[in-house]
Amino acid sequence: MARNRRTRRRKAVWVIGAAGAAAVLIVAGLLFQPWLLFVDVRVADRIPSPQATPFAVAESAEMADSPTVEATPVAPIGPRDLAAGSLISHEHETSGSVRVIENPDGTRQVALVGLVTSNGPDVHVWLSAGPVVEGRDGWYTAASYDHVDLGPLRGNLGDQLYDIPAEVDLSTFRTVDLWCERFGVSFGAAALS
């Protein structure tokens, strides 16, 4: 009789322990999403190429006799780069380049070009007022400064475009940061110049 009670108690402890372990694994899985380490998401946005500003040549009757011709800039017919930088690694190996593009209609975009990083949960593209700091200290820098969230990172590989709101002052936000909001850490960042 006492042996049956001990056996039942042991089974109950095992069942409760197994249920507890399963609950911990489920919560850890939902929080860390470890399967993302084995899944790559490639994005292939068409990144506009910067174009040189064309010049208009002033025409006049004297032009044929004049050794110098005056040229004046004309409004750009294509996008132009406002700033650029290279991504450095922080908490995860990260590489690629960043461009800030102004389109002919005045809209601006951040372009991640040739991005290679780890996939992770809740990673966002930030414009940050903070500096880019190399090494472990740089993992947390962006959270201490003002930032503009441009949205979730759409993939961990490839070329991607993110719209910059019209009211954002780019002289204040001189860093692009790939920020994991779930864990409060930077995957990588680029200083814009």
Task: Characterise the protein shown here.
With 193 residues, this protein is an alpha+beta fold. It has two domains: 1-32; 40-51 and 77-191, Sandwich (Immunoglobulin-like), CATH 2.60.40. It is 16% helix and 35% strand. The strands form three sheets. It has a five-stranded mixed β-sheet with strand order 1-10-7-6-4, with no helix packed on it. β6 and β7 form a beta hairpin. The protein is elongated and about 110 Å long. Residues 57-61 have low confidence and may be disordered.
Helix content: 10-25%
Q: Which topology of the largest domain does CATH recognise?
A: Immunoglobulin-like
The major β-sheet equals:
5 strands, mixed
Portion in strands: 35-45%
CATH architecture descriptor text of the largest domain: Sandwich
Number of domains: 2
How many helical stretches?
A: 1
Gyration radius, to the nearest Å?
A: 27 Å
The top level CATH class name of the largest domain: Mainly Beta
Overall average residue pLDDT = 85
Strand order of the largest sheet: 1-10-7-6-4
